[in-house]
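I'd like us to work through together how a protein chain folds, taking it slowly. To get us started, please write out a protein record for me. Label the sequence line and the structure token line clearly, so we can match residues to local backbone shapes. Once you have written the record down, we can walk along the chain together.
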Amino acid sequence: MRKQGHSSRAVVAVLTAALVGVAGCDAVGGDSAGPTPKATPSPKPTPAWDSSPGSMAAVGDSITRGFDACGVLKDCPDVSWATGSSTQVDSLAVRLLGRTKAAGRSWNHAVSGARMADLPGQMAQAAAHKPGLVTVMVGANDACRDSTAAMTSVSDFRAGFEDALGVLRKTAPQAQVYVASVPNLKRLWSQGRTNPLGKQVWKLGVCPSMLADADALDAAATERRDTVQQRVEAYNSVLKEVCAKDERCRYDGGAVYDYRFGTDQLSHWDWFHPSVNGQARLAEIAYRKVRSVS
């Protein structure tokens, strides 16, 4: 009986080994050492930011058109922070391209009074030039309405900006984008309200949601201004978030919003739009941000 047990176990062992060997061949394909692991694709590198683009286009509103900077109630694109030729400003285009090249390789498609809903159309015009860089400054008019109820909603603001970038990418996929934050409108009110002439001009309808009844400090006026300010901050969050999803887009980090425009930086015709000095300061901010390596 003991001998038969040993024999049975030996037979079982041999059969088991044979089965394991067959299974091993089926699993790895004969003498193969095992399946070759699939190569993990390398992540697509983020394009390096070009701090010296060869051409530039600007889109946006009255600030980029130099409105009220050197004449009453009129555009003055020569002093635009983005593309102006004035030596008093040294625009971003002049700083990046040089004065001669900027004259033929920079384009200003901003429109006074424009809101975010107008940006896709402007962006189509800018994209047609296949520029190396597009500057964006828009949003103040979305908040500057006849009432807080009439301000552009945050969702519509986001949709408009996404549409504008989409338009650019269809025609000029390699173009870089510099996005300036919306200025601090409440700070502009605080600065301008110290000037009697400025307050008279505001009564003509300059940013009524923020500037109407400039001297009123009651609860209703305070709430109205705070509502506008909160909307501006929400717009800036949208600009930052949407820009971050585009690998060739750079937001200014709130630099324009944080800049403290003083009376020297405000138009002495409306005490709201940037003066020539203010345009120069905007150009400095933009140049610093575009030239930064990070």
User: Anything to note?
Assistant: The CA atoms of residues 217 and 223 lie 10 Å apart. The first strand starts at residue 56 and ends at 60. The radius of gyration is 31 Å. The longest helix spans residues 2-28.
